[in-house]
Write a structure and sequence with these properties.
alpha/beta; Protein-Tyrosine Phosphatase, Chain A; 2 domains; eight-stranded mixed β-sheet; six-stranded mixed β-sheet; 15 helices; about 20% strand
C-alpha cells in the first residue's frame, strides 16, 4: 500500500518533499503507537537487556549467531531480525517482510520475550527503522556497529543523513539511565564496534563502555592464525582453536562481533562455556542462503543475499581468495524496484562484468517499476565497463527469473561457478500487486534435476 502511494504521489510532488512527508507521517504513527504499547505493556524494554545490531551488511548473521550462542550457554534469548522471530527455542520465520517493524511491534515483541522468560532480546536495527522512529521508547543497552557503506540513499536523502540516522541507536544508548542485570552482574551501557571500519570513531564517540573487534589492529577481540577456505574458517582466540562453516573474511568479522557480545554481557569464559561456544560456532551455518554452496554434477552454485555494491564486490573477492579457482563464473544479478536506490543498478552491472565471464540480468522484485527498465540500467553499467576496458564478455538479459536460472544451469560447464546475487532468502517475487512465492535454492535444485545436472 505504501509503495503504491509513493508511486502515485511522486508523479505530483518532488521526491524531496515526498520524502519529508512520508518521514513525518511514519514518525507520528510510531510515536503514538509505540507510546501506547510502551505504557499498556508496562514498559517491557526496561525489564530486559536489549541488544541492537546495526550496519550495512552482516546484521542478520550476527543477530542469529549471537542468539544461537546465548541459547547454547543456556541464557534464554529472544530474536527479532529480517529472517526470524524467536523466543528461546521457539524459532519462526519473520513473515512481515520488514526487518524492523514499527507501530508498537518492538514493544509487543519485548513483552512476549518477558512472558517467555527471556533474559536478553536481540534486535536487528535498520537505518529506516531509526529514521521513522520505530524504536521510540525502546530502552537499548548494547549497540553493535558492524560496518557502513552507501545504502538507502534515496530513502534518507544522502549518505550523510544515512550515517546520522544509523548513529541514533548509539546516541540513544548513551542517554539511557536504566540499570539492568544478568546473573547478578550489572550490564553497562556499551558499544561493540568494528575497529577496522573507517566510520568507527563516528559511531563510538559517546561516553559509554566500548568493546572492539578487529582482524588488523589490536582490539579486545582479535583472532590470531586465522585462515579461510571454501569449506571453513579457522582462527585462534582465548588460546583456543575455533572452526566455523561460515566462509569469507566478512563472516569472520560477524563471528567476532557475536563473541564480543559475550564479553560485553560478562559471560564467564570458563572451559566448560568455551567448549559450548566452540561447538556452537563449529555447527552454526548462519542464516540460510547467505554464501550457501550447492554442488551440482561437475560445477557449483553459490547463492548470497548481497544487495549493495560493497557486499557484491566482497562475494567475488571471497571467491578469488578462498574458493578453488573456477573455470568460469556465471553471475545472476538483478535489483529491487520500488524507488530503491536506483544509483546502485549500473554499479551492480559493472561489478559483475568485472568479475564474471557471463552476466545474466533478471528480475528480483520490480514492485511497480518496469522490470525491463531496471534490467536495462544494470545492462548499461556492465556494457560500459566492458567497452571501457575493451573486453568481450556475454551479457544476457532474461526478465523471468526462473528462465534466467535455467540459462545459467544449461550453459554451465565442468569447473564453472554460478553466482546468484541479491535475491538470497527473499521469499517472494513482487511485481505490482502480485506476490509470487519464491525459494531460490529450491528453484535451482528443480532446474538442476530438469537438466540432469545433480
Amino acid at each position: 500500500m505504501i509503495e503504491t502511494l509513493k508511486i502515485k504521489v511522486q508523479k505530483i510532488l518532488p521526491k524531496s518533499i515526498l520524502r519529508v512527508i512520508l518521514k513525518y507521517y511514519q514518525r507520528f504513527l510510531n510515536l503514538i503507537l509505540n507510546l501506547f504499547f510502551h505504557l499498556k505493556l508496562n514498559k517491557p524494554s526496561k525489564k530486559i537487556i536489549v541488544v541492537g545490531v546495526t550496519g550495512t551488511k552482516g546484521k542478520s548473521t550476527v543477530c542469529f549467531l549471537a542468539y544461537s550462542l546465548l541459547q547454547a550457554l543456556s541464557i534464554k534469548t529472544s530474536l527479532s531480525s529480517s529472517d526470524y522471530i524467536a523466543y528461546g527455542n521457539k524459532l519462526e520465520e519473520n513473515k512481515t517482510l520488514n526487518t524492523m517493524p514499527g507501530r508498537g511491534f518492538l514493544h509487543k515483541f519485548l513483552y512476549q520475550s518477558l512472558k517467555n522468560d527471556c533474559k536478553i532480546a536481540i534486535i536487528e536495527v535498520t537505518s529506516e527503522g531509526l529514521m521513522y522512529g520505530r524504536d521510540y521508547f525502546v530502552d537499548f543497552d548494547i549497540g553493535i556497529f558492524l560496518n557502513l557503506h552507501p545504502e538507502h540513499i534515496q530513502t534518507h536523502g544522502s549518505y550523510e543523513k544515512y550515517k546520522k540516522d544509523k548513529r541514533k541507536l548509539f546516541k540513544k544508548i548513551s542517554k539511557s539511565k536504566t540499570k539492568k542485570y544478568l546473573n547478578g552482574k550489572e550490564i553497562e551501557k556499551s558499544i561493540i564496534a568494528n575497529l577496522d571500519d573507517i566510520q568507527f570513531n563516528y559511531f563510538t564517540n559517546f561516553p559509554v563502555k566500548k568493546i572492539t573487534f578487529s582482524l588488523k589492529t589490536q582490539a579486545d577481540i582479535k583472532p590470531v592464525n586465522w585462515s579461510l577456505n571454501e569449506q571453513e574458517t579457522t582462527f585462534k582466540l582465548w588460546q583456543e582453536e575455533f572452526k566455523s562453516p561460515l566462509v569469507g573474511e566478512f563472516n569472520l568479522y560477524n563471528i567476532l562481533a557475536s563473541l564480543a557480545l559475550l564479553v560485553c554481557l560478562k559471560i564467564d569464559l570458563n572451559q566448560e562455556n568455551i567448549e559450548k561456544i566452540k561447538e556452537e560456532i563449529s555447527k552454526n551455518r548462519g542464516v540460510p542462503l547467505r554464501m550457501e554452496l550447492i554442488k551440482a554434477k561437475n560445477f557449483k552454485i553459490l547463492i548470497d543475499f548481497a544487495h549493495t555494491p560493497e557486499s557484491i564486490k566482497q562475494v567475488f573477492e571471497t571467491i578469488n581468495k578462498v574458493f578453488e579457482k573456477p573455470k568460469r563464473i556465471i553471475s545472476i544479478i538483478g535489483a529491487d524496484g520500488g524507488l530503491r536506490d536506483k544509483w546502485k543498478r549500473p554499479i551492480f552491472g559493472e561489478i559483475c562484468a568485472k568479475y564474471s565471464d557471463f552476466v545474466v540480468i533478471t528480475d528480483v522484485n520490480p514492485y511497480f517499476e518496469d522490470g525491463n527498465e531496471i534490467i536495462e540500467q544494470i545492462f548499461v553499467g556492465a556494457k560500459n565497463y566492458l567497452e571501457k576496458w575493451n573486453l568481450k564478455k556475454e551479457i544476457i538479459k532474461i526478465k523471468e527469473r526462473k528462465e534466467a536460472i535455467k540459462w545459467a544451469v544449461k550453459n554451465a560447464q565442468e569447473g564453472d561457478l554460478i553466482v546468484s546475487l541479491v535475491k538470497g532468502r527473499d521469499p517472494y517475487i513482487i511485481t505490482g500487486k502480485e506476490k509470487i512465492p519464491w525459494n531460490e535454492k529450491e528453484v535451482f535444485l528443480e532446474v538442476l534435476k530438469e537438466y540432469n545436472k545433480i
